[in-house]
Amino acid sequence: MNILFDERLDGSLPQSDPQTTRERLRAALPGMTLLDREEDRRPFECDGLSAYRVMPMLVALPETVDQVVTLLQTCRELRVPVVTRGAGTGLSGGALPLEQGVLLVMSRFDRILEIDPEKRIARVQPGVRNLAISEAAAPLGLYYAPDPSSQIACSIGGNVAENAGGVHCLKYGLTVHNVMAVEAITIEGEKMVLGSEALDAPGFDLLALFNGSEGMLGIITEVTVKLLPKPETAKVIMASFDDVEKAGKAVGDIIAAGIIPGGLEMMDQLAIQAAEDFIHAGYPTGAQAILLCELDGVEADVADDCQRVREVLAKAGATDIALARDEAERARFWAGRKNAFPAVGRLAPDYYCMDGTIPRRELPRVLKGIAALSAESGLRVANVFHAGDGNMHPLILFDANRPGELERAESVGGRILELCVEVGGSITGEHGVGREKINQMCTQFQPDEITTFHAVKAAFDPEGLLNPGKNIPTLARCAEYGAMHVHNNQLPHPDLPRF
Amino acid sequence: MDDTQATGGTAGDRDLAEALCARVAEADASGRPIRIAGGGTKAFYGRPVDGEELDLTGHRGITHYDPVELVVSVRAGTPLQELEQVLAAAGQQLPFEPPHFGPGATVGGMIASGLSGPRRPWTGAVRDFVLGIRVITHQGRHLRFGGEVMKNVAGYDLSRLMTGALGTLGVITEVSLKVLPKPAASHSLCLQLPLANAMAKLTKWGQQPMPLSAAGWYDGRLYLRLEGGIRSVAANRARLGGEDLDPAFWTALREHTLPFFDRADPRPLWRLSLPHHTPPLDLAGDVLYDWAGAQRWLRSDLPTSAVREAAARAGGHAICYTPDTAEPFSPLSPVLAKHHRQLKARLDPNGIFNPGRMYAEF
Hints:
Chain A is of the alpha+beta class and 499 residues long. In chain A, 36% of the residues lie in helices and 19% in strands. Chain A contains 18 helices and 19 strands.
């Protein structure tokens, strides 16, 4: 599979002349940094999906909203596509540049404009890092809830564009649940404010629509987020299991007991071993699976909930149950989980991180399917799972220097996502479609649904100049992808209409 | 879906999707607008629609409910009451406490109106719990967006776009919702407190981890609901004191059956949605505070423009709840209005879905 822009399948791109574009942008925006030398553009050729690289035609680093407006107006006039990038940590290639496009880098929009404890909001520029918001709010006893694993580096603008998640989504929601308002600029250079500091706004919920729209509808220039009071206390229980299926069932049992944990994570044997070797978190390396259950809130309630969760876990067949004795041990338990990706990364030269969601009850079936795909392909797969909300992150281990292994890893990844769709889940829980999962979109959605997505896009960007080729596939791509899979006899739903 | 896990089905369940699709396709071909109708309990909300009625009440039933997954999927015509009873039997609830405004309220009307009750500031609005929808497009195709999983960022979020769109973008036929367990403990109370003191306390409590789930103020009294674990609710009850309050107060507030909402009052009823800390607006009339100040009900004879401007100056907006108002919703900025028109034109090019229900121009 080649995910680079392919005009035959992704639609034709306007032909833009780099020299004219450069001259026009320089003339219109004399004060803006515009990188055109190859060595300056090189660092921007990929985002977090680093297996794929494209040199952007030009890299623009505006510092003011007016510059963004002028840049967009000029690009529209010249019919030059614009790809927007935040911190470049995205894992689905949503900020993968185009050879014929301008890469609009928002990293210089890095100011926190307002933190108001009475309103419980933070108003920030899009380049502000996710963690920086919580750090700035911490002296006031407040924090910003969504915490994607890249939170020390990822920017809030990118979080909105991808509707980023994290380990606390079941209780505190995704980005869309925690953003009050965004200011965005359309491709025509018009400024829009979506949402407000009130709890709703008149008209359609365009704020929700912009969350997760991957830079396809407009450019975000300001974000207002909701801040929450820090929970009084947080406790973590680690439970070990000799069987992955029992661990999966225990997750449902906790929720059936009426408890909504702040975080509920699961790791399988390979992930446990890797994390333990790397971090020495105190994980039981003999276990087939562990669950980490964080309970947060008011002290007295958390103590009661800890007791109930212990009882549920014991009944569910946990072989060992440990409550972190102090803050240091709690941090250590989490460190193993939060470093699971780099830990697994030590087991092989490369790994490919997937991001599918499933109804939790399907976990045993999907894990069996993944094990079968792993055996068939000869590639090891470690499983890290936001168990509470059904979001799986299988990590496929491979060596890109061995011919064909990257392709094999991608093929296994694609088939895992198709399995997620087959059991009623989704091809992406929190990383976005970007360029990476553009083909699997054809598995999850029918042609009429894809056409409806294109209609929404056209309401904001009829010429398709914003981030072309991302998020929503063309019907031509789906036809080709579908045909390919029928040929391999791997189509999960042969009865669905194809064309 | 795995039907063996589905529960909640009753003999009255019916799937009319095919017939509904045919009706929509016909309307689109002939260019004759349709007025989407459920129980009619929220017909007063928004502008009147001139069109042939498309009755959704026959398309009903819970198609899938697995309490352990915290997800329920339900057809649009299902009575809201019925859904709430099924959830309650499993110890769960719709956390956003949707208003019914009458016994006939349906799930479809709840989604299309996007209205939420007293718990909204603490747990979220209807749209925050929508995971997926099925919708009939103008061509009469029955499509599915989102799904039955908690996290799903594939494609644009059409489920939330359609929530609160008053049926102007398509016919919602089914919705999948995240549900939550009922809290272990709940206690309602009332404190004698002037408005300024009540607002100051709410602002302070908002910055603390306190188990609040509703807060209203009217006529010198602050009404509070504590919800959460048994011990934290008990501790806060002891700390706050006050008089015990019948929890039916919150239902009456949500359903507009408190004396404040008396239909005999000739003054128009306004809903002001404002940043919660906004000081009292200088508007002549009677005001009831909900959502810890973020939603205020106003009975006033003031001209529309005065109410709208005051709300806008405070960073919010105003909706008129009295039927037959020319324009019940605050006008959109020109750039937003343009993109609303463009969305409507792309998703409903012949203008058949509830034309004029939200704004006259579409």
